């Protein structure tokens, strides 16, 4: 009988590593500190929880490197891709999932496997030699105790950056007399895919007023020890993007291309805010690319300036959290 391999961290990386190992007939001890130790960003105690976005990005394996990685993972019998496909939502050419159903399915399949033992205790330090082969896959929400021990043992000054979370809106609070359903360039093989995104248009004056409100809004204040922590450029808060230039958002998450407003087909929008379905029922939509560090009251005020979201009710407001640079599994022994 093989000696168990220990995996610290039950996120997507740790869950995938566990699945690949037990699929080879080797036992695993999977250490996940939740629910005994909670984090700011997690909403459940499930494995492989999607914290920030419910999108795996492009699923095009012919024209996109991310899509090719999806293809390779499917070929390797990936549990993440299997459950992603099982709980996929309409998202044009992207792969988006019902985040709760996805995580629950990964959790069920792993915890029910006879070769897996789940340990729900926090790991404070890098493990001793007695553990044998170990994978550290604690990801962006590593507990401070373990992060400090990693820092000490790797002689690094910093292992962190900031990431932000986008708000989620109840769909029945969106004004569909102003918004409409359409994927950019009508991408998708089915009508459901071609109408996967909800769009809120802005004219130039509305856009400029919105940018001004972003720039002048109250933001989350960082503690002294956090102030020099950089942002992750791939997931910048919208206020930071706005600070980089008034037109930045129009060339980023609010670009108006590939869309026609059926309410005013003769008028081209100056900018468009897109929302993507967040659950299978279609009762929740997340605002695409709108991760933010605005204070909660400011989010409600500023986001209500978006046409169609004037009376929006939020299932979750945005936030910001520190991410550690151990994002993928690292074999340490």
Task: Report on the architecture of this protein.
With 333 residues, the protein is an alpha+beta fold. The protein has two domains: 164 residues, FAD/NAD(P)-binding domain, CATH 3.50.50.60; 151 residues, Beta Barrel (Elongation Factor Tu (Ef-tu), domain 3), CATH 2.40.30. It is 26% helix and 19% strand. It is built from nine helices and 16 strands. The strands form four sheets. It has a six-stranded antiparallel β-sheet with strand order 10-11-12-13-9-14. Strands 6-2-1-7-16 form a five-stranded mixed β-sheet, covered by helices on one side. Strand 12 and strand 13 form a beta hairpin. Helix 3 crosses helix 4. The protein is globular, with a radius of gyration of 21 Å.
**Total discrete domains:** 2
Low-pLDDT runs of 5+ residues are: 324-333
Number of helices: 9
CATH architecture of the largest domain: 3-Layer(bba) Sandwich
Q: What's the level 1 CATH class of the largest domain?
A: Alpha Beta
CATH homologous group name of the largest domain: FAD/NAD(P)-binding domain
């Amino acid at each position: 009988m093989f000696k168990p391999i220990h995996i610290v961290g039950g996120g997507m990386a740790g869950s995938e590593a566990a699945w690949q190992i037990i699929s080879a007939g080797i036992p695993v001890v999977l250490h996940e500190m939740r629910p005994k130790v909670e984090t700011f960003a997690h909403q459940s105690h499930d494995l492989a929880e999607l914290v920030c976005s419910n999108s795996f990005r492009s699923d095009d394996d012919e024209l996109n490197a991310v899509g090719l990685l999806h293809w390779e993972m499917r070929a390797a019998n990936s549990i993440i891709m299997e459950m992603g496909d099982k709980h996929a939502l309409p998202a044009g050419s992207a792969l988006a999932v019902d985040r709760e159903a996805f995580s629950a399915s990964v959790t069920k399949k792993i915890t029910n496997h006879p070769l897996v033992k789940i340990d729900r205790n926090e790991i404070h330090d890098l493990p001793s030699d007695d553990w044998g082969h170990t994978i550290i896959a604690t990801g962006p929400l590593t507990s401070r105790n373990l992060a400090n021990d990693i820092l000490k043992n790797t002689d690094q000054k910093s292992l962190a950056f900031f990431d932000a979370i986008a708000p989620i809106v109840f769909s029945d609070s969106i004004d569909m007399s102003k918004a409409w359903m359409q994927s950019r360039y009508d991408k998708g093989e089915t009508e459901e895919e071609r109408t996967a995104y909800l769009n809120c248009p802005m004219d130039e004056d509305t856009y400029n007023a919105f940018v001004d409100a972003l720039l002048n809004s109250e933001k989350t204040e960082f503690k002294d020890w956090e102030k020099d922590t950089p942002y992750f450029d791939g997931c910048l808060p919208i206020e930071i993007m706005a600070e980089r230039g008034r037109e930045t958002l129009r060339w980023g998450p609010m670009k108006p291309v590939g869309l026609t407003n059926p309410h005013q087909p003769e008028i081209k929008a100056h900018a468009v805010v897109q929302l993507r379905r967040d659950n299978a029922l279609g009762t929740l939509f997340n605002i695409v690319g709108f991760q933010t560090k605005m204070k909660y009251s400011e989010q409600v005020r500023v986001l209500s300036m978006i046409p169609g979201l004037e009376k929006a009710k939020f299932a979750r407001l945005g936030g910001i959290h520190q991410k550690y640079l151990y994002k993928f599994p690292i074999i340490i022994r």
